[in-house]
Design a protein that fits this description.
About 30% of the residues lie in helices and about 10% in strands. The chain has about 500 residues and is an alpha/beta fold. A five-stranded parallel sheet has the order 1-2-3-4-5.
Length: about 500
């Protein structure tokens, strides 16, 4: 009797356990198969789809989600790319022979290889590998667009996007008119049409354009004409109301807060981390026979230019200095092999202002492991905030020259006085900066190294999230967004560190 009772109790326990497990399995299955409304449309760079939730109409600006373990790595990093009419980008490339009227420069050859230009035949093995190209310094907008096409967090659903990229080739557009005597209305026409197209999109209304950005391969001043006088330079693109709400990345920023500088494209576009590391190691071991060098020409027509003084002192320094003559008509500077050969052999590379505050030679010097010497804060320190260290004394020398009339220094004596241990420390920091100032081949994907493109995208995402935070706090996002900072390029701001 006792055994029979035990058997019955055991059977009940087994039956109850079975029923309980069945209930739990059903519950778990329903949770796994449940879905929210909507689906995700992503460019085919990520295989794991994520659900799309519509923005709450009462709170349209929600915070970007943080990434818990095992979550989608693109949360907070998605970028939506506007599909512009081709007249604003691709058609300009198709008519490349019309890009630079009034000059002898033909831009068509430089558009090959996704904007990197023709590959350099490196007969002297100065450049180590075949990832070097004749890259035009004004083609950043094309290179950036092609790299964006390979960005791993693209989305075709703008509601997911943390930032909106507008691939308008504004630099190539304005280059058609800068040297051709075109009217101001013609110079402004494409920009006006572009902004009309953008503001009519649903994406614009979310933040009234403050999450929108675009990239240009010219300096910001080319787009900040302040009058409609026909004799004034450039277009007024950046002073148009909609453009004022957007962020522009350019090779040289203005003093307005909605302009940010990113590095000029150099001629080195590696396809792997290994090529970068190999190049860095070569620059560390490089023997440097010149104390300093300068690549450039005099600018007698530029008031206050110190280039003439620099050239005179270089020539007077004999074997301590190497001059690459880049005067108008000279061809030495057009060949990257010539420039890199000298910069690789120099301890210091002098970087006075160019035709504007900045010059590509800054990044050629860093690429060559040559310590840059700056004379004005607007040449680098106030410009490349996302790419160069805030403490500029770690990678450069600063010899401020407020007025060429007050020039008293002897450059060779000043540079000879730099202790050897500091020279070695500066060079090591310069070599470490190399990945941050180059644009890798658009066809490649760097897994463990961030290049100039990656840092620019990171800077944009942080900026747009900052604007969202301001809006969520009930503050006016217009305050400070596009304000001018007249003190940005003043000497006193940067003399405390020197």
């Amino acid at each position: 009797m006792t055994g029979k009772l035990c058997n019955q109790q055991l059977g009940c326990v087994i039956l109850l356990s079975f029923v309980l497990c069945l209930v739990l399995l059903c519950f778990d299955y329903s949770a796994l198969t449940g879905s929210n409304n909507g689906d995700t449309s992503l460019v085919n760079n990520y295989v794991n789809p994520i659900s799309t939730q519509s923005s709450n109409s009462s709170d349209p600006i929600s915070p970007l989600p943080h990434n818990p373990p095992d979550s989608d790595p693109c949360l907070g990093r998605y970028i939506y790319v506007h599909n512009l009419p081709t007249r604003f980008n691709e058609a300009l490339l198709q008519n490349c022979h019309l890009l630079t009227p009034g000059t002898e420069k033909n831009m068509c050859p430089y558009l090959s290889n996704l904007g990197l230009g023709p590959r350099i035949q490196n007969h002297e093995m100065v450049l180590l590998n075949d990832s070097w190209y004749l890259t035009n310094q004004f083609l950043l907008e094309v290179i950036f667009h092609n790299k964006m096409k390979n960005y791993k967090c693209l989305t075709t659903d703008s509601s997911l996007a943390s930032a909106i990229y507008v691939p308008f080739y504004a630099g190539l557009d304005i280059s058609r008119y800068l040297f051709a005597g075109a009217s101001t209305s013609l110079r402004d026409s494409s920009a006006i049409d572009l902004l009309k197209w953008v503001r009519e999109g649903e994406e614009w209304k979310k933040m009234w354009g403050r999450d929108h950005f675009f990239v240009v391969g010219r300096i910001s001043w080319d787009f900040r004409r302040q009058t409609d006088n026909e004799s004034d330079w450039g277009s007024k693109f950046r002073f148009l109301p909609e453009s004022n709400n957007m962020t522009m990345l350019s090779i040289e920023a203005s003093s307005w807060n909605n302009d940010f500088a990113v590095p000029y494209p150099t001629c080195f576009h590696p396809s792997s981390e290994g090529e970068i590391i190999q190049w860095q190691d070569k620059m560390r071991r490089q023997k440097r026979r010149y104390l300093f060098s300068f690549a450039g020409g005099p600018r007698p027509d530029l008031q206050g230019s110190i280039r003439g003084k620099i050239i005179d002192q270089c020539l007077a320094s004999g074997s301590l200095c190497k001059l690459i003559d880049c005067n108008y008509g000279a061809t030495n500077c057009n060949n990257p092999v010539n420039v890199m050969k000298v910069f690789q052999s120099s301890v210091f590379c002098l970087q006075p202002q160019g035709d504007s505050y900045t010059r590509r030679s800054i990044f050629d010097a860093i690429l060559a492991g040559c310590i840059p010497v700056f004379f004005h804060p607007g040449t680098a320190y106030a410009q490349y905030l996302w790419h160069l260290p805030k403490n500029y004394t770690t990678y450069s020398l600063y010899l401020p020259v407020r007025d060429v009339k007050d020039w008293k220094m002897m450059i060779n004596e000043t540079l000879l006085g730099v202790p050897e241990d500091r020279v070695l420390a500066l060079r090591e920091e310069v070599v470490k900066l190399i990945p941050r100032v180059i644009y890798a081949d658009p066809k490649s994907k760097l897994e463990s190294v961030e290049d100039a493109f990656d840092l620019a995208v990171k800077g944009i995402l942080e900026r747009t999230e900052g604007i969202r935070r301001i809006i969520r706090e009930g503050k006016d996002p217009a305050i400070g967004f596009a304000d001018g900072e007249d003190f940005k390029y003043t000497f006193s701001t940067y003399e405390e560190q020197s």
